[in-house]
Amino acid sequence: MTDPLSRTGATVGEPVATTSAPPTAFLEVRDLRVHFPTDDGLVKSVDGLSFQLEKGKTLGIVGESGSGKSVTSLGILGLHTTGQYGRQKARISGEIWLDGEELLSADPDRVRKLRGREMAMIFQDPLSALHPYFTIGKQIVEAYRVHHDVDKKTARKRAIEMLDRVGIPQPDKRVDSYPHEFSGGMRQRAMIAMALVNNPELLIADEPTTALDVTVQAQILDLIRDLQKEFGSAVIIITHDLGVVAELADDILVMYGGRCVERGSAEKVFYEPRHPYTWGLLGSMPRIDKEQTDRLIPVEGAPPSLINIPSGCAFNPRCPYADVPKGGITRTERPELREVAGGHFSACHMSPEDRQRIWTEQIAPKL
Amino acid sequence: MLAYLIRRLFAVAVMLVVIMLVVFGIFFLIPQWTGVDPATMYVGKQSDAAALEGIRQKLQLGDPIYVQLAEFFKGIFVGRTYSGGGDVTHCPAPCFGYSFRNEQAIWPVLADRLPVTLALALGAAVLWLIGGVAAGVLSALKRGSVWDRTAMIVALSGVSLPIYFTGLLSLAVFSFGLGWLDGQFVPLEESFTGWLGGMLLPWLTLAFLYAAMYARITRATMLEIMGEDYIRTARAKGLREPVVIGKHAMRSAMTPVLTLLGIDLGALVGGAILTETTFSLPGLGQAVLKAISERDLPVILGVTLITATAVVVANLVVDILYGVIDPRVRLG
C-alpha cells in the first residue's frame, strides 16, 4: 500500500537540501511551493514562500480564504496531500528546516514521528476536528502514547493533567466526556490540550478562534499565549483576523495568492504597512478604540484564482494604485519581496517614497 | 446506555403489536369487508359446504371483529382452541394459524424450516460483510486505481446478475462440472461437513449479490470520511496510517453498513425464496413458495409474521450496536 502522505512530489522543482546553507533559525521555510494538479489545471496554493521563526516567538500568517495559509501549515506537517484536492498527489518543493532537520527530503515515517511530538497543530473547528465516537480522554491518551511508551493509566493521568492545565473544570470527570458534550470553547481547550500533550517545540494554530463565540475567543488567545510562555515553543498562528495577530504575534506575514506580500515585525506591519493589500486588510477591520467616522473599506474584488494567477503583481486587478508605477509594470512583472526597512519586507512595484506618501496622506488618516 | 436500551425495547414491543394488528387486518378484516370468506382460504381448493361451515365456526367468523382479534392475539401469546364442525383442535402458543387441511399447527412446521433460513442468511451475511467491506475500503483508499475499477465492475455485475443465474452457474461449474460439491442440502444433525458442503454454494452466491452493494456503500462512505477533519487530526497526532484507517475511519464507516445489514438480514429471513429454490434448501422461502402456489393462507400468514418480527429484531440489534458505536445516539 502506498502511503498517501509520502512526499514523492519533493523531487519536483529544485533539488532539495544538497547545496543550501544550514539554517540559522529554529524553523526555516525556504521557497516553499505546494501545487495541486487538478482537472482544471495546476492549483498553486503556495508559490515560493520563505520565512523564519525562533523558539518562543509567534508568527502570524494573515490572508484571505484561499491565500495559501492553511496549505502552508499542512505542508510543514506533511499533511498537505490530505486537503480538499486529495484526489491527485500534491507537489511540494522547497525546504522546511525544523531544529536543524530538513523535512521535505526526510523519510515520511521520520516526519510522522515528529508530527504530534515536535510539531503539533490546533485546527479551526474543534467539533469536526475531534473524533465524535471517542472520549476526549481517549483521544488525548492516544496522542500521548504514540510518542511515549507508557501504560494507559499513566497516559490518562497525563491527559487529566493537561485538561486541568488548559482550564477545563473537573478534568478527572470531563476526561470521560465525548466532544459533543463539551461547549465550543471547552472543545478548543481540549484540542489545545491534545496538541500540547507531548510538549511540542512548534505549535501551529490554524484559525483557532474562528469557530468560537467572541467572548471565548479572547480566552483561547490568552491560553495560547500563556502556554507559549510556559513551554517556550515557537507558534505559528494562521488567521484572517488582524485583531488576533495583533494580540499574539511578534512577526506578521501577509499572504496573497500563495505568496508573501509583506513580512515584518507586528509593529511595522501594523503601523507602517507598505503594501496596498495590507492597507486593505487594515481598512476592512472594525475598530472600537476610535470613533467610527467612515464606513469600513472593503478590499474590492475577489481573491485570485490559484489556477490563473494574474500576471504581474497578483494583487493588481484589485489594487487602487496599480497605475501609480509607470509603464504598466504591475501587470507584466511580478514584484520581488524587497526590504523596506530593517527586517521589514514588502513586494510592491511602487517606490518606497510613493508608498510612504500614500500611507501617511490617504490611508492612515482614515483608519 | 441502559435508558437507551429500555426505550428501544419498548419501541420494539409496540412495533410488534402494530405488526400483528396489520397482519390480522390484511388476513381477516379486509377479506370480510370486501365480501370474501376467509374460510375458503383455509379449506383448500376442494371444499364442500359442510367443511366450510365448520371452519367458519372454528375461526369464529360470525363473531364481532374484536372477539376475532382477541382470539388471534390469544393464539399468538397463549395458544387457542378451535372448536366447531364437530371436532375440537388445540393450537399451542405461538399459534400463527392452523392448517385444517393438513391437521397441523403452522408454527412447528415453520420452526423446523427456520434454522435453515437463518443459517443461510447469517452465513452469507458474514461472508458479504467481510468481502464487501474489505473491497470497499481498498477501493476507496486506492481510488481510481486498476483495483478500484475492477472491484467496482465486479460489484456492478454482482448487483445486476440475478441469483438464479449466478446460483445455477455456480452449481453448473462447481457441482456438475468440477464435482467439488454435490450441491445437496444435508441437515446439520446428520453431518457437519455435509451440511457445510451443501451450504457453501448458497452462501457464496447470496454473499456475492450483497457484497457488491456493501462494497459500493463502504467505498462511498470511506471516501467521505477520509476527507473529514478528524482524520486529519489523527494524522497530525503522528498516528500510523493503518491506525488512522483501521481505528478512526472504520469506526465511522460502520454506521451506514450496519443500517443496511439490519434491513437486509431481516428481509432475508422471509425472502430468500430464490436462493432456497435454486439450491433446494428446505427453508422458509421454499415453504412460502409452496404455500402461495397452493393458496395455503395460514402458512403465508405465519411466514409474514416471522419475517416482520425478524426485521424488527434485526433493527433492534442494529440500534443497540449504533448506541455502542456512536455515543451521540444514546442521547436519542
TrEMBL record, chain A:
It is a peripheral membrane protein. InterPro entries: AAA+_ATPase, ABC_Ni/Peptide_Import, ABC_transporter-like_ATP-bd, ABC_transporter-like_CS, Oligopep_ABC_C, P-loop_NTPase. Coiled coil: none annotated. Residues 27-282 form the ABC transporter domain. Pfam families: ABC_tran, oligo_HPY. It is found in: Cell membrane. It comes from the Bacteria. GO terms for molecular function: ATP binding. Keywords: ATP-binding, Cell membrane, Membrane, Nucleotide-binding, Transport. Belongs to the ABC transporter superfamily. NCBIfam families: oligo_HPY (TIGR01727). This is ABC transporter ATP-binding protein. It comes from Streptomyces pathocidini. The lineage of its organism: Bacteria, Bacillati, Actinomycetota, Actinomycetes, Kitasatosporales.
Automatic annotation (TrEMBL), chain B:
SUPFAM superfamilies: MetI-like. The keyword Nuclease does not apply. It comes from the Bacteria. The keyword Signal does not apply. CDD domains: TM_PBP2. Keywords: Cell membrane, Membrane, Transmembrane, Transmembrane helix, Transport. It is found in: Cell membrane. Residues 114-322 form the ABC transmembrane type-1 domain. The chain crosses the membrane at residues 9-30, 118-141, 153-180, 192-212, 257-279, 299-325. InterPro entries: BPD_transp_1_N (IPR045621), MetI-like (IPR000515), MetI-like_sf (IPR035906). It is a multi-pass membrane protein. Gene3D superfamilies: MetI-like. Signal peptide: none annotated. Belongs to the binding-protein-dependent transport system permease family. This is ABC transporter permease.
